[in-house]
């Protein structure tokens, strides 16, 4: 009986010991859960994006000492340019200068123009934040301005994106195919207002375009250019870059004072050709103020300021500090861009995250998983999240997948989109997001843009590399890069290697 009692006691002691071990284990797990909870809460506190978009932007528009110093040096009587890399605040300084000019010289006719409709909306949004109220400051795209000016001379004129292709089709031959005619006339001759002497005699350099053209080919192309421009005049319909060429013809004959501006402010000037810049300069009485980031120049080489009549002289100012990106994001961009000179970031933050995917479907699945994590765990406001892609071809699949997950999403390219009114995740091409920033950016690299076929391979690679640079630098806090490795471009492979070179032994992304 004593032996059985002892066995029972030993059994109970064993059970008690096991229970104590289990309790200690559960207590340890509970402590770890509390630590994880505290960590997540700390991340939420650290993440500025947990506030509303308006609250975030209200703090982001405060001028730094460097930006104020440049602003104070700007003159409204001489042409000037503000140079700076991504995140340096050049657009903010330009916007503030625009408001100062309107305030100091209310009698002057002023206008701010930029390259994309998205940036027009974003700049208007910033203008309202800077003014603490809704403003009627005029901001528009260069294309919209040029068309409105042309309609003064030709009231029925309009833009037609398909017109040039239709007009050029009968002229296409085996030696001068349609794609070459379109590329040469629209993106080179019209965009830069190339004269016949420059094209045939000086043989001005065509950087990056496919095929070296002989004199007879150039002669034939320039004759075709004359013919299609005459047809456009007759029809009263124009391609995008031919509008500036037609305006220059009118302005050579007649300078209309009612069309003139006292001061013009031009954002993202690196994306404009000589023809558009020449028109803007001819319509400016006092001065043009420009902002420029040469590293974000996608489809053009060089900055034709002096050729357009713009005289900068000593009125060139550079912003050196990167106020948008965190140090880890800038370091990734520096590795990606190589030897380029970039502004210096000073804010710490989480490392960018690379997610290699085996297919486009895998990209979509991972995209929703990441969105769910940042939304539910870190409490990101949806309006502070942006999905970027190189091409609009990805939009339908992304919209469907995100909406099916129960999250609201809106296209920034939609004409009715408003930064002030719209809620939900933002979706945009990388190109249309130039000048805009978001706390969280998910960069989906599934394919390359479809408009690069007319360029040499080396130039295609450089354009795509610049495009990826723009995508990386849209993020002010968190960057997630999703790459489709099934059909990968060398520019995307290079980006993946930049992530690998960052890793320490045993570290994974």
Task: Write up this protein.
The chain is an alpha/beta fold and 509 residues long. The chain folds into 3 domains: 55-155 and 244-319, Rossmann fold (3-Layer(aba) Sandwich); 165-238, no CATH class; 324-501, P-loop containing nucleotide triphosphate hydrolases (Rossmann fold), CATH 3.40.50. It contains 17 helices and 16 strands.
What topology emerges from the helices and strands here?
Elements: H1 2-46, H2 53-60, H3 65-73, E1 80-84, H4 90-104, E2 110-114, H5 117-131, E3 139-141, H6 142-153, E4 158-159, H7 163-168, H8 178-190, H9 196-202, H10 215-235, E5 237-238, H11 242-253, E6 261-266, H12 274-282, E7 284-292, E8 316-319, E9 321-326, H13 327-337, E10 344-347, E11 353-357, H14 360-376, E12 385-389, H15 395-404, E13 409-411, E14 425-429, E15 438-445, H16 457-472, E16 475-484, H17 490-502
Parallel strand pairs: 1-7, 1-8, 2-3, 2-6, 4-5, 6-7, 9-10, 11-16, 12-14, 12-15, 13-14, 15-16
Helix pairs in contact: 3-4, 4-5, 6-11, 11-12, 13-16, 14-15, 16-17
Which features characterize this protein?
509 residues; alpha/beta; Rossmann fold; 3 domains; six-stranded parallel sheet; 17 helices
Question: Would you tell me which CATH topology of the largest domain applies?
Answer: Rossmann fold
Output the radius of gyration.
28 Å
Q: What value does the average pLDDT take?
A: 85
- What share of the residues does DSSP label as strand, in percent? 15-25%
What shape does the CA trace take? elongated
Straight-line N-to-C gap:
64 Å
Name of the CATH homologous superfamily of the largest domain: P-loop containing nucleotide triphosphate hydrolases
Oligomer: single chain
